[in-house]
Structure formats: C-alpha cells, structure tokens
Design brief:
This protein is mostly beta strands. It is built from three helices and 24 strands. It is elongated.
C-alpha cells in the first residue's frame, strides 16, 4: 500500500518500520544513522542490514511516535530516506484509493490501492516527497485528485574519506571528530640531508545539515634553519564548508560543496609553492564535486589561494621573487576493498586511494603536479588510520621538497553536541 503523510504523529497502531537510506556505502556511514535513530525516545530497537542500507525499527508501545523525526535523524546523519515501510496492527479499516483515513493520531492519504477492509496486520509505504526521490514521488502520485501538502526535497549529505583532499561531504550534524596528522619530508640544506616534520591537530564540527567547520593548529620545524630542529608553533586555521547540492540514490550520490579557509602562519616566505596548509598566511576558497558509485568514490577540487604576507604590499621597485596567487586543484579516487560483505559495525574497513594534486601560479610562472597513493583503515566505524606517500611527477617549482610521508589518526563522536532541553 502507498500513503501520503498528512500529519506526523501516531500511537500504538504502528508497531514497526523498515527504512532504507540512500547515499551510503560503508559501515561508518550506517552507524551514524543507527546512532541518531536510537536516540529517539519512541524507538525501542534498531537492527541494521549493512548490505542493503536498511534499518528495521521497533517502536515502544504506548508512546507517541513522530514519523517525520525519523526522516530528520537520517538527514542529520548525512543521508536521505529512499523507502519507509510502516507495519500497522489494526484490522477492519475501510481503505479507499485516493482517500484519507485516520490511524491513531495520524491522517494518511492512500494512493494506488484497491478498496478493501484492512487485515489485522498490514504494511504500507510512505510516499511523501521527503521519503523517496522526486521522480518516484511524481510517478506514484500522478493519478491523485487530492492536493496534499507536498514537502520540498531536502539536501542531505554524507561522507567520503580521502587522505589528502577534502570531499564534498560534511560530518554529521551535532558530531565532533578529533584528528592528528603528521607530515615528514626530507630536505637538503648546506649540504646536510635531514628530515623535517609538521604535526597538526584539528577538530571537525557538524553545525547543521549543510555546514561544518574545522579549526586546526600546527607545530613543526620545516622552516627552521639547519641544524635547529626544535618544534615551534607554525600556524592556526579555520575551515568552513557549505553543502550546495546533493543528488542521492541507493549506494550512490553526487554532491557539491563550496568552502573557504583562512590561515595565519608564522613562517616567512621561502619557496614559490603556495598552499593553505600552514606554509603561508593565506585565504583559500573553492568548489568540490564528488561522485559515489557503490564502492568507488571520485572527487575533484578547484580553489584560489591568496597569500596575505606583509611583503605583498611593499614597494620593492620591481617584481618580487615570490608569487601571491595560485590555482590549486586535486582529482581523487577511492575504493572500498574490504570487507567484501558487511555483517557488523565492528568490521574493519580497508580503503585504497590515489590522488592527483597540483598547483599553478597566477602571478608568477610556476607549476607542479604530485601523485599521492594512500591506504586507510576504519576501525569500529568511528576511527580512521591513514597513511600516504606524495611525490612530484611533473613541474619545476622551487619547493621545500618534492616528496613526503603522511600519517594520521581521526576519532569521531556522533551526537556529541547535545542541545539543552527547555
């Protein structure tokens, strides 16, 4: 049976629900939905089928349930509802096609059904616009003569987990993550080969369905003069990303996001390469496009970086050695290699990545392109361990180094930001 929601609460007669979510492909994604659903006080239990992205929900008897709250929790986790089936334990209802009927405190509008008396227990599908795709909604409701209240499609979001670049996905609403990242690079100075390092700590905060922020700080010795290898404060930054587009389906999605980043750095200008990684005080803004196809995720980023060093505004009587503007870009691909089949949230995921990262000077003639293969482990659906090696494959820019090793660890906490009850 198909129904349109007219109001959103019901008692007792609806005992269970089967929900399928769209836009997710891994256990980490599914766990964010599971955590959000189990936080609702009218839900007794949730069982997950990780292979089909489905959730069997059992409601607590005698407690008013909010069907629309279920949808909001899925969207807060970063995804959307592609199908919702409700199990009704109430016989003898006079069901008529394209007519409304009250079940508990909820009024439903039945579509595409035969006129009948309901059995003691039956299942019906919610076909409100927020519980399936707009295309399917239009198809299923084309013959209805009743003008129901139709909701606009929301813009949910999800997660891709690249090692070097940022995807067009945000962390779930009200979630926190804390990340350590280390970068090691071999340098040669005054005929001495030595290894320098940068340590970075950052926290990602999900402020809403469309917005996340990430403050970060770094310490390192990459800009020290040899033989000084003491660690010192290098930079502080703030990053913000806004979801602007999301097209979801089961096991696939396309997403777009705009981002901006501000960096304050203590480092002096020493190299032609321009980044927003703490090497210079800079402002960066750009666009990210990401396509997920089951276990494969492909993403591209383009951005403009403006260096804000004081030397930029000094009059040197001619052209300076350093540039202050660049176009930075990346093309990334990731594949979920293991597990072959999901059975629980505790399974360790193994992902492989390859990323193409480049930069082109806009006010000085420099360019380079790097290749960065990487691996990733996701443990207990809440912790990520990354390792990657980045090396130059083309270009002749004057850089600190042309290869580096990166290792990072990130721990996520879902529903960590609690709202105060009034």
């Amino acid at each position: 049976m198909g129904i349109l929601l007219w109001s959103f609460t019901s008692i007792a007669q609806i005992s269970k629900a089967s929900l399928q979510a769209s836009g997710l492909t891994c256990a980490l994604c599914a766990k964010s939905i599971y955590t959000n659903l189990t936080a609702l006080d009218f839900i007794d239990s949730v069982d997950t089928d990780l292979e089909t992205s489905s959730f069997l929900i059992v409601f607590k008897p005698g407690i008013k349930l909010d069907i629309d709250a279920i949808r909001r929790k899925v969207e807060d986790a970063g995804f959307s509802v592609s199908k919702l089936l409700l199990k009704v334990d109430q016989g003898g209802l006079a069901i008529r096609n394209d007519q409304k009927i009250r079940i508990g405190d909820n009024v439903f509008h039945f579509i595409g059904v035969k006129n009948q008396q309901s059995p003691a227990s039956f299942e019906m599908r919610v076909i409100d616009q927020k519980f399936l795709s707009a295309k399917e909604f239009k198809k299923l409701t084309a013959g209805s003569k009743i003008s129901c209240y139709q909701f606009s499609k929301s813009l949910p979001y999800a997660q891709e987990l690249y090692v070097y670049s940022e995807p067009a996905s945000n962390v779930p609403t009200k979630s926190l993550s804390f990340k350590y990242a280390g970068k090691w690079m071999s340098e040669s100075e005054l005929g001495h080969e030595h290894t320098t390092v940068r340590h970075m700590a950052e926290s990602s905060i999900g402020l809403g369905k469309f917005l996340m922020v990430r403050p970060a700080i770094s310490v390192g010795n990459m800009y020290n003069r040899y033989p000084d290898q003491k660690l010192r404060f290098e930079s502080a930054s703030i990053y913000a990303k806004l979801r602007v587009l999301s097209i979801d389906d089961v096991h696939r999605h396309f997403r777009a996001a705009a981002f901006v980043k501000g960096v304050f750095s203590k480092n002096d200008l020493q190299y032609a390469e321009i980044t927003a990684d703490g090497d210079q005080t800079a402002i960066q803004g750009g666009l990210i496009l990401t396509q997920l196809l089951h276990k494969l995720a492909i993403s591209g980023t383009g951005s403009l970086v403006e260096v804000m060093h004081p030397d930029r505004w000094k009059d040197f009587g001619g052209q300076t050695f350093y540039g202050y503007q660049s176009f930075n870009y990346s093309l990334s691909a990731g594949y979920l290699l293991f597990p072959r089949k999901y059975t629980s949230y505790e399974q360790t995921n193994f992902n492989i990545y390859v990323e193409l990262i480049g930069s082109k000077g806009l006010d000085r003639d420099y360019a380079f392109m790097d290749l960065a293969p990487a691996i990733q482990l996701i443990v207990n659906s809440n912790a990520k361990i990354n390792a990657g090696y980045r090396f130059q494959i083309s270009g002749g820019a004057y850089r600190m180094g042309t290869s580096s090793l990166s290792i990072s660890y990130e721990r996520s906490f879902l529903n960590a930001i609690k709202r105060k009850k009034k």
